Amino acid sequence: MLHFRMILLLLLIIIVPPQTEAQGFLKVSGQQIVNDQGQNVLLRGVGLGGWMLQEGYMLQLHGEGMQHKIREKIADLIGEEKTNEFYNAWLSNHTRKIDIDSLKAWGFNSVRLPMHYNLYTLPVDKEREAGKQTWLEKGFRLTDSLLAWCKANNLYLILDLHAAPGGQGNDLNISDRDPSKPSLWESEANRQKTIALWKKLAERYANEPFIGGYDILNEPNWGFEDPVNDKNGLKETGNQPLKQLMMDITKAIREVDNKHMIIIEGNGWGNNYNGILPPWDNNMVLSFHKYWNFNTTESIQHILNTRNKYNVPVWLGETGENSNVWFTEAVQLLEANNIGWAWWPLKKLGNNNPMQVKLNKEYDKVLAHWLGNGPRPSAAEAYNGVMQLAAATRLENTIIKRDVLDALIRQPFSQATIPYKAHIIVNGTVVNAVEYDLGRNGAAYFDTDTADYHISNGTHGGNKGRVYRNDGVDIETDPTATDKYFVTHTERGEWLQYTIDVVKAGHYNIILNYNTTKEDGKLSLSVNNNTTAKSITAPKTTGWQALDIQKIALKKGPNTLRLYFNSGGIHLRSIQFTAIK
């Protein structure tokens, strides 16, 4: 019964009665973020990357991945009118109430909204009168809806200006910056529009306690002192233009709103605070971003030192894009240091986030054309492809990544394993090899290469195939097979665990569907922590073959089966159970 409830929780939605009682405004108390009762609040959230602001990699488009370039590419194929139709469908489908209901059910308590300014106001070069701000209803209406969904679920909503007027960095995709036009740092009109936008937002939401805070400028990355050799501001020592803009935004917000936390980010993608501190507001939080490095105290020591020096809270506003092992390690590290977090992103075309958006054949043709690997698709093919893509962002059309959710919410606090799915064993039952248990490395499985630490040691680890699951176990696709996913790149000492529910006790032959083309492989099998079969030889094959492990005793009810790889290079597709009469 417990397993059934867990599966329901992870699969989709638990109906949660609406909670409308105010949590109270979040505020700063020393090094803590607290609610209106003074209780410490540890934010566990997700960023809605890709909704208001697309980045090319989220659509599997590499290179020029700025949204305005993506839009141009789409318009080139299907025309401006149908491009507008696509973007309207994208905004309507990507994030809905069911997404926020799901986040609540899964255990999150906050949402970070990456905003594109052009949904709220016109670009400066399209304003009819210089210095005037034209406000657009679409962005505010979308934000109002999202806030209502968050309120219904008792979740905090953090507003994040992800794409500022002109763009705030030389990493162009992040802020949809057009380098042919003046940046945020090169245009006073862009600066004033940014300040005005924040004042408008603060005025609108000043009395909304479910607005958790204002993350006023995402990942600035600009070399003020040495724009040629330090274009992303990693070595910047002064950061005065950035500090001045953030101070001006703060002043504008405080003219209309004294209740909400203001969250600031350093230069160099959020981490370079040289010259920016001390804080200039008594309700201010420092944000930092963390990707692809070790999850050790040393990896966050810089922000811990800053927190201690200035007696101010810190929040990890963005992290993710890695494997489940990394996710669990990161959450453990952060929460042990009382640092809340917002995972990035909720959904995309890709495997390492809570929801995976599915590809379609027509969009594959569009991608092939864009990447120079195929002919130009017809307008009808391209239109169908992008519209199917927009529909694929709806939660019910995505693949809910139960392993990712488990790694974020349960595994940081539990060594226990749970079944990936219910494996009910009767005569003839087949268990797919990729459906091993959910749990930590060393508990549900063991893999020697588990995560991407390339910032720290240059290695890009994790699932080499980047499909189906997001653990260290390597999984690839065989498009010619019905059960198309299989475990691959196994190494000596690795193992997989399966929790199975046997209907009738007895002896079973266990038949492995395997492949090893280099040399004979060696396997071992244990059942309920007892080694049942040692040093099984898996003969070298020229294709997929059956390996029969005979007369294995299984008890009625739950059994734990572990398959050990005593040599590497064995590919495994499935495990079949045949009862011996």
Commentary on this structure:
It comes from Niastella caeni. Pfam families: CBM_35_2, Cellulase. One of its GO terms (cellular component) is cell surface. 29% of the residues lie in helices and 23% in strands. The chain is of the alpha/beta class. It has 2 domains: 2-51 and 95-356, Alpha-Beta Barrel (TIM Barrel); 415-579, Galactose-binding domain-like (Jelly Rolls). Strands 3-4-5-6-7-8-9-10 form an 8-stranded parallel β-barrel, surrounded by 4 helices. Helix 11 (324-336) runs parallel beside helix 14 and helix 12 crosses helix 13. The two termini are 30 Å apart.
**Main sheet?**
8 strands, parallel, barrel
Count of DSSP-assigned helices: 15
What does the average pLDDT come to?
A: 95
In angstroms, what is the radius of gyration? 26 Å
Structural class: alpha/beta
Distance between the termini: 30 Å
Low-confidence stretches: 1-22
Based on the structure given, which CATH architecture of the largest domain is correct?
Alpha-Beta Barrel
Q: Please tell me what the overall shape is.
A: globular
Supply the CATH superfamily name of the largest domain: Glycosidases
The CATH class name of the largest domain reads: Alpha Beta
- Which strand-content bin applies to the residues? 15-25%
CATH topology of the largest domain: TIM Barrel
Strand order of the largest sheet: 3-4-5-6-7-8-9-10
Count the strands? 25
Number of domains in the coordinates?
2
Percent range for helical residues?
25-40%
